[in-house]
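Schema walk-through. Below, the input block comes first and the output block second. Nothing else is stored per chain. Lengths vary across the set, and this one has 424 residues.
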Amino acid sequence: MARTARLVWVDRVPLAFGLDWVPLLGDPEAARAQARRQGASHRVVSGDPPAALGLARGLPAGLACWSAADLLARRHPRGTVACVLPLDDGTCHVLAAHEGVALARADRAYPDADLAGEAIEALRQAHPKLQLLAAHAGAGAGAPGLLEALAGEAAGRRPLEPVRRRGRRLALLVLAAGLGAAGWLRWGGPADAAAAPDPDARADWHAALERTLASRPLHGEAGTRALLDALYRQPARLGGWSLHELRCQPRPDGALWQCVGEYRRQGRLADNRALLRAAPADWRLDFPSLDIARAAWTLSLPGRRPEPRSLPRAGLLARDWASALQAVLPAFPVLRLDAGRPLTVPAPRDAQGREPPLPEDFPRLSVRALRVEGPLRSGALLVPLARAVSWHKAALTLAPGARPDVRASRLMLHLEGTVYENRS
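--- output ---
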């Protein structure tokens, strides 16, 4: 159920608490339409560039007010911060921000300090370097001081933007225009304008969609786990040769993946014969130079053709799945999810070479590009999140001089794929 925001007046400045925050994955201008669809009374975008959309419900239409969560994020453009603010009704409100963006799992009220503390610890699991501000409320200091500081930030910031509804008059005008156009098509338009859609054209369009989806199988959890297992099994040293990099991509038919690993000679005693003896039987080896060897082999990954009706809805993907990705961000130096774009389906042609009209029930599917870079060990975090992912590139790179930490390793993983979503 959607929450109703509440106002707290601090030094005559109304601060709004309890907004719903969702990742802003597409064009920031599209946030207005999203706010209308979700029944918000006010909206605000957080981050520079904007990365989160805050939706407020139930606030007075004519009152200028500011989001406390967004003001906190603007005060802390670097790192991860959180605070517990005791409000005047006895509740404890948790605010948090990461790299200047309000966090989706914060801006929530709790009936006591213990529950608020548990919420802070849950945030700390996703962001181990979280800095807690105003952990204890003290007289004249701590949390009340932060409230006053947030109110002071409002003077230089734009207030929440009211979400304007499309008026009833406009709806009536659109309805009248639609009825007029329908009448023209029925009585005054060309004879073939109102003709029933060709069933063959519908079948041709759906067959084209089937071919497109079959060329981009969903790897999901099983395929992602199999891909990572194959990368883990790759020998790092073999016959005196050391792995330098590994790249895998699906073949044009999509049935098998082609992998190529580059090995470099280590030590004076290493030679081609030693590598040939130690190599797996299914490898095809060639030696482009005296110090470099290339091994090629095929890899089979489980995958299935995407079923449009079972793909995640765009709104749920933006809210829940993207939030899950945000939770594992600390383990990857690069984890990027691009804005959705319509799935391109090559149009069929009739006997005269013309493109038939698109059927009304044709699924509206989109794909988002997903790019991941991080330690090989971090790849396991992606397995439960890969239900709607189709991978099309995987690579391993050896970085001998790297200093291992949470986001770095001597074996770095690179993945590229697409995420399906249903906009029907």
